[in-house]
């Protein structure tokens, strides 16, 4: 059955939710689990560890591992770069259309999740560098060795914006529509 829709209707749907979590090495709070469980079937969801500068690399690793464990245990659906790639329309495991370079890139993105960022409080007037000034010094938040801000910005605005929209329209919204139609 073909569904006819007006192509001139403006799209006000939310295509991506950046869900900021506290940097707790114990994992997600009960509130975070509840909220992420509620929204994960309606929108593309990317968990982000806030205030990364408060964690050592070892603590960050533990924090990420525990957050991912909580996500899996609670069946929270987060955006999966590899399975949601536009070249893999059926969501299956047929990655034959991806080059090994593309596959490795998408696989690496999935391994980075949850992203971790440092919030900035200063933009350099002469350099334009986005930094966080602390009493111990300044942190360049675009330094990929420190946080994932630059990568996240690239994903959202350059490489995956259309994929987020496509997944919203083709998977999430259609699933929502079917659910609503079955209720009536």
From TrEMBL:
Pfam families in the record: Septin (PF00735)
Coiled-coil regions listed in the entry: none
Superkingdom of this protein's organism: Eukaryota
An example Gene Ontology molecular-function term: GTP binding
Domain Septin-type G intervals: 1-183
Protein's name according to its UniProt entry: Septin-type G domain-containing protein
Upper taxonomic lineage: Eukaryota, Fungi, Dikarya, Ascomycota, Saccharomycotina
